[in-house]
Amino acid sequence: MKRGYQESSSSGSFGPPHSKFKYNPEGDAQFLEDDNTKIFAKKVADHYSARTNQTLEEREASPIIHLKKLNNWIKSVLIQLYAKRGDAVLDLACGKGGDLIKWDKARIGYYVGIDIADGSTAAHDIMVMRTITNAAKKFSFPARLICGDCFEVRLDKVLAEDAPFDVCSCQFAMHYSWSTEARARRALANVSALLRPGGIFIGTMPDANVIVKKLREAEGLQFGNSVYWIRFDEEFENKDAVDCPEWIVPFHVFKTLAEEYGLELVFVKNSHVFVDEYMKKPEFVELMRRLGALGDGKEDQSTLSPDEWEVAYLYLAFVLRKVES
Question: Where is this region: Disordered (predicted)?
Answer without folding.
Answer: 1-28
